[in-house]
Amino acid sequence: MLYIPCPWCGEREELEFHYHDEGHIVRPDVSVGDGEWSSYLYERENVEGWQRDLWSHDAGCRRYFYVLRHSVTDEIGGAYKVGEKLPPLPVEAEREMGS
Amino acid sequence: MIKRALNRVEGWGRVDRTQEIDFSFDGQWMKGYRGDTLASALLSYDMHLVGRSFKYHRPRGFLGVGSEEPNGLVTWGEGKGLTPNTRGTMLELSEGLKVRSQNYWPSLHYDVKEGLGLFSGLLTAGFYYKTFIWGWRFYEPLIRRMAGLGEGPREVCERDYAWRYCSCDVLVIGGGSSGTAALSELLRGKGRVVILDEGHTEGGWMQGDEGEVEGMEGMDWVRSVWSEADSCDHVRVLRRTTAVSVYPGNYVLAVERSDEVGEGLGPREVLWKIRAKEVILASGGLEQPSTFVNNDRPGVMLAGAVRRYLRHYGVRVGERVCVVTNNDDAYQTALVMKEAGSEVMVLDSRYDVRGLFSDRAREEGIRIEEGSYPTRVRGRNRVRGLGWENLGQGGESLGGREVGYEEVDIVAMSHGFTPCVHLNCHWGGKLKFDEEREIFVPEESSGERFQVVGMAMGEEGFAGGMVSGREAGRRALSRLGMGLRGRMGMWKVGVGGREVEEGEGDRRWDRESVWFPNLWHKPGKQFVDFQNDVSVRDVLLAHAEGFESVEHMKRYTTLGMATDQGKTSNMHGLALLSKLCGKGAGFLGTTTYRPPFTPLTIGTVAGMHRGDVYHAVRTTSAHSAHVEMGAVFEDVGDWKRARYYTQTGESMDAAVRRESLGVREGVGVMDASTLGKIDIRGKDSVRLLNMLYTNDWSGLKEGGCRYGMMLDEAGMIMDDGVTARLGVDHYHMTTTTGGAARVLGWIEGWLQTEWPDWEVYCKSVTEVWSVYAVNGVHSLDMLRDILDDGSLAEGVSPMRVSEGKVGGVGVRIFGVNFTGGLGYEINIPSRYGLWLWRRILEAGEKYGIVPYGTETMHLLRAEVGYVIVGQDVDSTVTPYDADHDGLVSKKKEDFLGYRGLKFGGLRGSGRLELVGLESENSEEKLEEGGVILSEAADLSLLPLENEGHVTSSYMSPNVGRSIAMGLVKDGKSRYGEEVLVGRVGAGGEFETTKAKIVSRVWWREGGL
Questions:
Q1: Which of B232, B313, B413, B814 pairs as cysteine with B290 (C-beta 3.0–4.6 A)?
Q2: Are residues B81 and B54 part of one domain?
Q3: Which residues make Cβ contacts (< 8 Å) with residue B163, sequence separation at least 6?
């Protein structure tokens, strides 16, 4: 079970949270065609590796926020609030440190 | 009858012989000692036959000594405490313990089902699928009676089970030599440590193995470390505790048999939920059996178990022992059994045997037959003798001719050890196959915070296991910033009085793989999986039928699917299938390891969550009054809602008839407090409503109410309700009872992620207000009577919210109702809810007020054609489909679902649309869920085209006939047409009835 660092409350058990979707899905303008709208509704990156999740702390502060999570190992690489500058994914951070 | 425990040897064992314990097995009373398990106590009486096998009812005895045991399952306790399928090797002896053997008829020693012999032919792999494709109804009861384990208890156990939560810095799983070595380092640090071991005594294999640490006998050293831990404040010691599953993030579930058999006041079992920053897994190794004909006879045991019974429990399990091995470790058993006075010989499948223990065995004059492998065991309820063949230099069969035979009563077999990696794999840790040693070991890099040590990591030697344990302990502490000072000192570690270097000198698993030399030419059963009765032949059959994936083979043969999770069978099954496929033993990989490691009782899983506290229940403030008035409740989400009120035992139909007539003709009241309520404030409130609802909210004046539907972004109906404007920037939203939480989450999600700059605040006020829906022609009369200022009742009008006071308490009156006709919903702060409910009933008495439940509410709203989200419409239905076209604003340029509604096809023909339905026979109630077919449908031509289904159906006393609603293909343009509604008749046959498509509104009344 995950241990999730809520940016408002600190580390808590996964039980207190609710996973919603991949993070940063942009709602397109309503003038787009059926294809683009259905891709907004149904198509997801589903990456094998680090990704940005949208979670909410339902049994706590009830805030929505983003979590960096590795979809294979379930490692948690941090969390950040809506509107905050996007922290790099852990792989990107590693790459930067390497270069 | 055996009277004396002849197998108990003086001077051996660590059980407390000063404390005798009486217990019974199948009604026979016997004595054991404090520290015994049922297995050791029975074996002290030389009782090897303790159960019957799952499918073939073959006699079985104890194979092992711990949780790996596949055979020795027993039922213990009586009545409410009855517990089946417990491993006799794990069941600690306690005074008065009553144990029964399982799965036999008529007696353990003579089982008819085995005698019949019929079944072994039938019950091969895949037999269900092949034999009983036809006639399953006939065979099933027969098979169910035949196969099986113990019987479940028939009474509810009244003892407590508990959950406990715990977090720690380091968790050590396993208290064998390497786990204890890790503990000894952790004791020197300051971190909070939890160590657990599944035995009632710590030590693991150390209980039976030779070894010295710092001049102390191995077990004495283990116990000294544990007793130090017992007195340490920062260490929690959990004995009798099995880690059953490990989840990502070092979240470990463990079951403590805290007072399993006792009558104490504490819980019987505790489910520990442990969150550890660091985990050290020292789960040891699992000794593997050998495969030869009749390798399941009572008296055939694992070599390591045989010596553990002797060295730990002082029980010498037999007098004439044949050790069957392909490794050096099993020679320990030969040595120790000889020392205790047994006659011992060894069959070793290898040639030119050299090794720490085998060299000593040779010096001791133990007979060793090299290059030999068992052919078959003689004896039925107990081993009588063992024959063997010679193998070639490469371990291959030379034809299987029996070259020797010896009368023995114990076969102590060892096919080497396999690391016990279950817990490493639960959370996703990977394995790699070690080609040389033919074992699967955890990959080193598999988790920074999860270290595997000792035999579980494939460490072969005693000394090496200790070092890996100590290093892991130190590494954990240093990663936690609690590192120990100084370098790790060297320990003097010895085996058999000889000092050994780390990992050198005692390669105990030094084995040659001899995989199934006698596959083809032996009649009789060689078991791979003892608990599920899977033999070598079953695996051959599976392969012959084309199963080449381990997962498929597992499911086809059921190998490894028993309650022992294949601890003594999986590896052989995998190796055999790989060999049949012409590949190396590890080629096919393993099946997936899934929790739990050992079975856990349902009681433990449930913990305290049973009976009244099984699940949280929400009740309204007037709940007690409903109970008094004979309400029958239904569950709506977590809420208990009054479904109808039964007077003097009337049926639901009668109650609904009485209630619905009473509301229409006089006045009725329903508790509607469960309705979701959200208080919305802020200057962007109306902007929010305009995005949430399909209709336009810009024109709603203060004091006004409006009905709205919410859609998801695909344009499908999500929820509905009435929202009132209480002030300039203040709204009161209502949702469906079941949708309240979802809607609030939905709103918050949009506000927090898409529109974070909007100034609008939402709060759930569902439980702040009690709501009573008052309906019927006298509803306003009654309101006038209870309001402090009765004249205010004149201000109550449709779709308006007004305020007043009852008994000095402020109330809000919403001019809305869900039943049609005159009615309103009166809201009062919840703490006055019960009081107001009683006040309304009192005041309504002169009008003949009728309290009504949800069932009547459903009927009344159907009479006026209102929809219930979740019943008549769901997330496949648009507002157009629901016949609410007018509710979709044509002016607005966006709202949630706006773009979804424009998807091609959503407004064309072929959609299911909501309409009314009337059966041809007005007395006949259509079946809810009944399929709708075209009137011209030819029932003999399959498949029939489905044209929709009935969503709601009632018998309406007010309308004087049955009424129904349904989603019908192109329904809105088919009014007046006839359709067929299907249902399953009493005899199971499909029948249809005629119905007409009509408008949804059956009842109208002037008024509000």
A1: B413
A2: yes
A3: B270, B271, B272, B273, B607, B608
Q: Do A56 and B754 lie within an 8 Å CB cutoff?
A: no
Cis omega (within 30 of 0) for bond into B798: no
Contacts of A83 in chain B (CB under 8 A): 756
**Cross-chain Cβ contact B749/A37 below 8 Å:** no
CATH code, domain with A78? 3.30.2270.10
Q: Is residue B524 part of a domain?
A: no
Both B404 and B547 in a single domain?
Answer: no
In this structure, the answer to whether residues B570 and B433 fall within a common structural domain is no
B131 domain-assigned: yes
| Domain edge (last residue) among B764, B796, B822 | B764
> Tokens standing for B98?
């009553």
Given an 8 Å threshold on Cβ–Cβ distance, is A73 in contact with B248?
yes
Note whether B903 and B700 are within 8 A (CB): no
Alpha helices in B136-244 (DSSP H): 136-146, 177-186, 218-230
| Number of structural domains found in chain A | 1
B900/A37 CB distance under 8 A: yes
What is the layout of strands, in order, in the sheet containing B212-213? B216-217, B212-213, B493-495, B498-499
Which ranges constitute the DSSP H helices of B270-351? 303-313, 331-339
On the CB side of B999, CA atoms within 13 Å amount to 5
> What's the CA dihedral at B710, B713, B714, B719 to 10 degrees?
-20
Are B844 and B941 members of one domain? no
Whether residues B640 and B777 share a domain: the answer is yes
- CB-side neighbour CA atoms (13 Å) of B107: 5
Number of domains, chain B: 7
Read out DSSP for B543-574? HHTT--SHHHHHHHH-TT-STTTTTTTHHHHH
CA-based nearest residue in chain A for residue B448: A75
Please identify, among B764, B791, B813, the residue that sits at the C-terminal boundary of a domain.
Answer: B764
Q: pLDDT, tens digit, for every residue of B308-336?
A: 999 999 999 999 999 999 999 999 999 99
Partner residue facing A41 (CB), from B713, B749, B754: B713
Quick check: helix, strand or coil at residue B585? coil
Distance CA B191, CA B194 (A): 10
Residues of A with CB under 8 A from a CB of B: 1-3, 13-14, 18, 20, 27, 30, 32, 34, 37-38, 40-41, 54, 56, 58, 62-64, 72-76, 82-83
**What are residue B308's phi and psi, to 5 degrees?**
-70, -35
Model confidence at B657, pLDDT cuts 50, 70, 90, reads: very high
Q: Domain with B81 in it: what CATH number?
A: 3.10.20.440
Determine which helix (DSSP H) or strand (DSSP E) holds B653, and give its type and residue range: helix B652-665
Q: Is B319 in the same domain as B262? A: no
B263 and B363 co-located in one domain: no
Please report the ipTM that was assigned to this predicted complex: 0.95
Q: Which residue of chain A is at minimal alpha-carbon distance from B449?
A: A75
Per the structure, the complete domain to which residue A23 belongs is given by 3-98
Does residue B112 lie within any of the structural domains?
yes
Tens of pLDDT, residues B598-635:
998 888 999 999 888 888 899 999 999 999 999 999 99
- A1, A3, A82 ranked by CB distance to B756: nearest: A82
pTM equals 0.86
Domain holding B364, by residue range, is 289-415
